[in-house]
Amino acid sequence: MLYDLIQLLNIYSSILAWKVEYIPQETNLNIIAIGLPQLWPGLVDITWKNVDDEIDLAFQTDEESLNLQYNLDPENIVYQSFSRDNLVIYYDRNHYNLNDFFRLVEPLVQHLFDSNYSIRFYYATPKFKDISLFELINTYWFIKPKDVTFSGSITSMNEKSFPKLINKFLEWRTDNKTLDHYKQPSLIYRNFRNEYFEENFPPQMFDYLVVMYSDDDLASKEHLEFFNILADRVNNTGVIVGGCDLTSSLFWGIWPYSLPFVRFYSKKFDGNFEYYYEQQEMGTYLQFLKDKSPNYQQFIQYIVDERLQGENLEKYYWKRHCENRDNNTRLLIEWLLYEIVDYDSIVDLYLQEDKYKNLPGYEIHIMGHYKEEMYDQPYFQPIELDTHQRLKIVMVGQPQYSDSRKGTRFLMKEEFMVLGKSSYRSFPVITQWEYETDDTIRSLDRDWFELAKNWAGWLHNSRNPSVELRNLTVPRILFAHSDLMLKEVNDQFPNGFESFEKDRYDIAMSQLGNETWHEDCKNWTLGVQLYDQLAATGKYKMLLIGRELPPSWVGKVDRVDMLPQNEFFDTLARTDILLVPSMSDASPRIITQGLTVDTAIVVNIHIAGGWKYVNEQTGAFIEDPNDIEKVIDDVKRRRKEGILRPRQWFLEFSTYQPQRIQVYIQLMWFKFGFNTDINGFEPEFDRLHCFACTG
Fold first, then answer.
1. Residue 309 domain flag
2. 506 and 635: one domain?
3. Contact 621, 644 (CB under 8 A)
4. Which of 44, 343, 397, 562 is the most exposed place for a label (fewest CB within 10 A)?
5. What mean pLDDT do residues 322-343 have?
């Protein structure tokens, strides 16, 4: 982070800094010149663009890595923005000295002051001998936002290039893309200037919660997202929520700490403040305001539900628990929904209304961190597509051993809504063969089923849920993670997807992993039978992705190892048919990835999940291995005749899938009362969003 960079430097205030006073109404900028023993090694992934070329100066990189390259001349100047108000310049101190900078900066200070810019100039040297440009940049490279950074180099520093650099920096500050990145997130959330809190105390008619952050820090970004929602929550309560970018203060040396920090200002502190260190949980912040903020205390006195006052607690018990549904149509409908287990038709009815079609929708990701603990597979989490906010909902995607269930029980205790998700073989359907050969499946004991009874719902792949899932009576819906592949695959084609000629391979099969477990799940035995017959005809160009070729296929079948994602999708898009022999497989995502790039599918008719994607427009089932040549030729015929249209079918199928999962989850959220407190009343804080969850 930026603080780590500052720790490596001795920063000095030059005469040009202390001569200039900061004026709150004007734009205050800092130029920090860092003299290094040498500039190289440079960065091969950065396209250092010369200011003399008068082109876009923001560097571009396709990778997150830092690779070394000896590509900078000692006469070069390398520059890098931090936030909107700080420009750091790296130079070779064996080639330039401070007098060179004073000579160029001093006339600019007065010129820009006349244009309402106050510029301070600082110079810095590394604390440690022979530190390189790479070592400095590496301290913040991986967390710095790169899409709006003003960075590059100039061939030499002189009276022509240096003013041009500063003018380009000022233009970048007011560019629409830059302004959009650094804009105030909402009208309710307040942005405060750093000198405002260093030199003034805010007006005492309000209480203030202020996050002290840096725009070049990921942890700060998470706080800002939370504080934006908090600002909306406490709007009109006498508490002002905002942020203060201390990037400049770090360079001045008046903030010698890491970021972020949260300050609370209150009139009862009489000109002082206190720090707040709790995690990003809405409930804990609101409780803090109840305890500390006179304005918030006064506000909540007016919003306490009268049904919880005095004798009313008993008087209104029936309102909370026993209201007569015969006189309340909505309650009657909700009661009927309790008698329904399969929610597919119900969700489809909701999606006939425009307001549900226009929902932003959810996507599904691995859960990640919650309260410093890592929740990897089998924990999944829905994320809002518009805000990218994680929800306080967890999906359990496979059976768990006894010890692993402790994590699930902890999340349930933390008031997460838990859903089952069929992401592992035939789970939760139990087959004798899987039970005998897979220890994970054998962990499905009585205790696990008792635990699952407390979950709110289930995303399944079953053809006949009323029979196969009769032991799971929670509300369920036919939905798989693979239903959401359209966005993920389209993101791999930033310029838009265009149909490719199917000229690279006639048939491809993916078989990753050489273990017995992989062979069972992906049905390698059937795959070998099918490829043997197809290879024997000599009619098809065939590809195997992943495992090693059997000797009999050498010279007949091409083979590639596991491909990077962009290469995989490019290969798949140029393949006519994807063969999926899997049986014990829970709706493999490669099926819908293939459909998205207009590749047809031939799927084992006995597959556990993914069967719902197979139809006349997308491909075919294979049941008898002896029919494989006939099936392949029939699929090819349909493509030539225009009957086969895999991508078009999946586009139509995917239209409302993100909204479909959102409607189902929200129905369960309200059905099981996760939106209310124990009395059935709306809580004071947002229960749906998980602010302590990070990817």
1. no
2. yes
3. no
4. 562
5. 70
